[in-house]
Structure to design on (587 residues):
């Protein structure tokens, strides 16, 4: 059977890594192919591959060229990329509580105004979505989610904030995301979650995996405060709803 | 309890080892020493594992004091004035501090980072097999942040081994790169400009990235790409056209086109290049880069074999008198007679 998909491009990233590029744009099918190759590589356990980093559209494969030759690795990567998408059957699904608006979502009103919606409508549309963790990057646990309602798309802030609190849930462009650590952010803050995608001394240290599905539920300020305290004690806060 | 106390220290100094690998897919950057050859050299001098954690000291000065016993240390990396109780300490040597003695380090000269290894290593709680400090994520041990005056390391008492030195090659020339992964976002003219220009590192650079000053590079299709994975040495070109080399504390993904990638063998040399000192890039093939990587790893593995005892040039009066007994003709030019040992 002919491969229904074009071959990815193999782009060297220095002497010890190769980028397997499926698309140059944000693309649902490309992301599923990235995650499929990532799973296939994990199953194949090829000697010399030290680490993989899935992104929206490419898989970065770190390897030791003293163990596996660049060309031999390329051949394996192309073969494993052919014709497969990430299976849906074993996708982990999480429900994540978010405290929208007010002091925890300081951009909600402005976002609503810019989109000619009420704040409640923005929240309703954000909560209605099912999102996939397309990639985790930049800082520990920063989860980029695909699947944002197109009516909520808006360009990033002209001036990124230098410091936002941990646990923000934000939108930027055609994406929504969860930032775990305090840090700079150019997206619009809709709310905060007490769930920590990254927490030292908790098992698991990292909660979300690329490929996981996430939906949000709205909680009030008091519940958020209780959940914050529970999270400090190591509770996951996010509810695993499948499998 | 024997300890090494940080008596004073400038900013940009932290505990670093070979790095923290395995969680880049979760956004956790490897961190680790900016110049791993110098880290390994310092460790070799005191008999530690090559990539064991040591103190990475930024360009500013620092002082360390042994408390509760003697402590054996080694210094490698950027040269800088150093002494213990007015005795000069050379770079690429080990030294033992007696209880209460202080090692004084001046400003770095001809480099940016020095490495202070402690015999027996640094005690800490590893995460992902690493003690490396990642200040942004609050990771690292025993201090998950840059070092401050008053910090204390629990250390093993000095073994009493003699002072050692290590010979290291002194590579020079252009910083070698493999082009890509997004060099097709630049015209041939821009790639020639990148490879044909003098670059300097801006003073605003840090462990996360080195900002380069030189001619602005223009993109073919704008400066935004959909975020893509990064490696140590990725050279991103943001909208203003001034390249940024991603260093040990880089983000694990980035959204600017990457014109080229510094080869592993030259990464530490770039890390040691001082702000304002001009340098050039040179493109090499993948085969050349990987051959260099094998040579670099051979060099690292061979470091313990390059360590030798320091031969002092002081006269050993006892040896002289012992040798110069009646009836023996002693050559005044025979060094072994004077020193009582065979010099290297």
């Amino acid at each position: 059977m002919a491969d229904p998909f074009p071959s990815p491009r193999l782009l060297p990233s220095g002497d010890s890594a190769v980028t397997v590029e499926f698309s140059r744009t944000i693309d649902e099918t490309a992301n599923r192919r990235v995650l499929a190759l990532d799973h296939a590589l994990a199953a194949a356990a090829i000697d010399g591959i030290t680490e993989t980093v899935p992104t929206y559209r490419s898989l970065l494969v770190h390897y030791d060229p003293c163990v596996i030759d660049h060309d031999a690795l390329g051949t394996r990567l192309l073969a494993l990329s052919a014709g497969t998408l990430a299976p849906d059957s074993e996708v982990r699904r999480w429900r994540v509580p978010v405290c929208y608006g007010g002091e925890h979502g300081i951009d909600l009103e402005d976002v609503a105004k810019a989109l000619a919606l009420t704040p409640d409508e923005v929240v309703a549309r954000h909560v209605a979505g099912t999102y996939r963790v397309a990639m985790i990057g930049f800082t520990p646990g920063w989860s980029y989610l695909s699947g944002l309602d197109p009516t909520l798309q808006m360009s990033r802030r002209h001036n990124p904030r230098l410091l936002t609190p941990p646990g923000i849930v934000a939108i930027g462009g055609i994406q929504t995301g969860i930032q775990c650590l305090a840090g700079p952010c150019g997206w619009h803050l809709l709310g905060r979650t007490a769930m920590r995608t990254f927490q030292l001394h908790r098992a698991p240290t990292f909660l979300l995996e690329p490929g996981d599905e996430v939906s949000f539920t709205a909680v009030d300020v008091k519940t958020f405060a209780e959940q914050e305290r529970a999270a400090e004690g190591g509770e996951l806060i996010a509810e695993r709803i499948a499998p | 309890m024997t300890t090494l106390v940080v008596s004073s220290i400038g900013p940009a100094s932290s505990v670093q080892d070979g790095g923290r690998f395995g969680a880049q897919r979760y956004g956790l950057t490897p961190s680790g020493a900016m110049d791993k050859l110098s880290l390994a050299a310092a460790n070799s001098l005191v008999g530690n594992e090559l990539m064991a954690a040591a103190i990475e000291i930024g360009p500013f000065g620092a002082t360390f004091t042994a408390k509760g016993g003697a402590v054996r240390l080694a210094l490698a990396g950027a040269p800088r004035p150093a002494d213990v109780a007015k005795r000069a300490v050379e770079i690429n040597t080990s030294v033992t501090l007696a209880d209460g003695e202080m090692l004084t380090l001046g400003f770095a000269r001809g480099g940016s980072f020095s490495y202070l290894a402690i015999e027996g290593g640094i005690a800490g709680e590893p995460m992902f097999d690493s003690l490396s400090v990642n200040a942004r994520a609050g990771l690292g041990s025993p201090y998950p942040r840059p070092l401050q005056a008053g910090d204390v390391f629990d250390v093993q008492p000095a073994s009493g081994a003699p002072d050692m030195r290590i010979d290291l090659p002194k590579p020079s020339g252009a910083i070698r790169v493999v082009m890509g992964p997004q060099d097709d976002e630049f015209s041939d003219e821009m790639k020639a400009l990148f490879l044909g220009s003098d670059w300097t590192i801006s003073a605003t650079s840090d462990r996360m990235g080195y900002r380069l000053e030189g001619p602005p590079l223009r993109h073919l299709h704008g400066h935004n790409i959909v975020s893509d994975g990064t490696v140590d040495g990725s050279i991103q070109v943001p909208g203003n056209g001034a390249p940024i080399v991603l260093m040990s504390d880089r983000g694990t993904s980035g959204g600017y086109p990457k014109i080229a990638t510094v080869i592993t063998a030259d990464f530490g040399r770039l890390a040691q290049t001082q702000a304002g000192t001009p340098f050039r890039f040179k493109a090499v093939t993948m085969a050349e880069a990987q051959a260099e990587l094998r040579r670099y790893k051979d060099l690292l593995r061979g470091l313990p074999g390059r360590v030798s005892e320091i031969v002092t040039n002081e006269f050993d009066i006892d040896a002289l008198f012992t040798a110069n007994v009646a009836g023996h003709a002693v050559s005044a030019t025979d060094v072994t007679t004077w020193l009582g040992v065979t010099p290297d």
Notes: Chain B is about 15% helix and 25% strand. Chain B has a mean pLDDT of 92.
